[in-house]
Design brief:
Blueprint lengths: L1 H12 L4 H14 L4 H9 L8 H29 L1 H19 L5 H29 L5 H29 L2 H21 L25 H17 L5 H8 L5 H26 L5 H21 L4 H28 L6 H30 L1 H28 L1
Helix pairs in contact: 1-11, 2-7, 2-8, 3-4, 3-7, 3-10, 4-5, 4-6, 4-14, 5-6, 5-8, 6-14, 7-11, 7-13, 9-14, 9-15, 11-13, 12-13, 12-15, 14-15
GO molecular function: transmembrane transporter activity
Keywords: Cell membrane, Membrane, Transmembrane, Transmembrane helix, Transport
GO cellular component, one term: plasma membrane
Amino acid sequence: MITKTLSLYKNAYSGLSSSTWWLSFVMLVNRSGTMVLPFMTIYLTSPSMGYSIGQAGFVMALWGLGAVTGAFLGGKLTDRIGFYPVQLITLLGGGVLFMFLGHMKTYPLICLFTYLLSLVNEAFRPANSTAIITYAKEENRTRSYALNRLAINLGWAVGSAIGGLLAAINYELLFWVDGATNIVAALLLSYFLHPSKQVRPAKKETVADPSHSAYRDKVYLFFIVLVILFAACFFQLFTNLNAYYKIELHFNERFIGLIGAINGIMISIIEMVLIFKLEGRRSNIFYISRGVCLVGVAYFMLNIFHINHVMALLMMVVMTMGEILALPFMNTFWTSRSAHHNRGQYAGLYTIAWSIAQTGGPFLAAQLAEHAGFKVLWWVLGATSFATALGFLWLKKYMEKG
């Protein structure tokens, strides 16, 4: 049994290019400093800062607005100057801006630097997505994305756990560590993945719908709408859900950090093996719709059950399983519709979808929580997740007819 399990893990990780591994290592270092975003709402509503949940929600909306702008510019620049310089510039710029934001105390400056930081930070994502495709072998793109997500989430687990400890000491430490890991990641990228050391793999493009523009691909645009709805629900995991744990359930920062760490640890252990077993057996949308459903179930659990420490951890397990099923296959779906000449555009639009969700999701949810209560919020998020899952199933039937 142990031998079979070890063999399964070995097979799940074999066949990936060395550049894919180095890129994932860079992401691991970068995301090990992911501390500011999950604690931003708690930080702003803490006694030392004194802002309301509504004001904190507005700041998170600005983060999302900056992300939309950054994703658009990042996609354009990636197609124009290449994914390497865009990644390098945004990692360095983001590192510096994290440190600046930690020194901002007045509300207007917090809003301004949050927007600027998000713009620079999120411009990195389309370039990074394009790099993954370039370095990956065509037959294991989903696993290449899963490895990158493993690095991100393992880093998230480390960042959440350490972030909880640092937040209990001084919230400003979060900004310094987040900024430092950005800069270290940029240095590693420059050393291990400099273009002079890379040979772009020659591969024949196999595109389901080689549309000239992502903005004229009707199937892809409907997919993007569904991604926005899902992501708006999913992003509560890092914002208002943590505020709920702190304000309503009175969990301390250490335990809130532990809950976030469980998410990253599960993804690190389960995702690659599960993707290896599932990839190619069913359509991408089949797995996406099931994952979105599980996210809805997780939100319903917050109202159906009495949420103590054990139930909070169980809810995170269900939420994480939904994420594991949905996100890797979402990445595979958009890459299957892109070609080399417009890959940055497709990646940019996909990133914009998540950024729009970051803009509207936490802000609207914060207002709903403030005026109607958290229980209403969890019912709305659960129902929206189920409706979105049905939308994905409709898209699958539409594509099969077409």
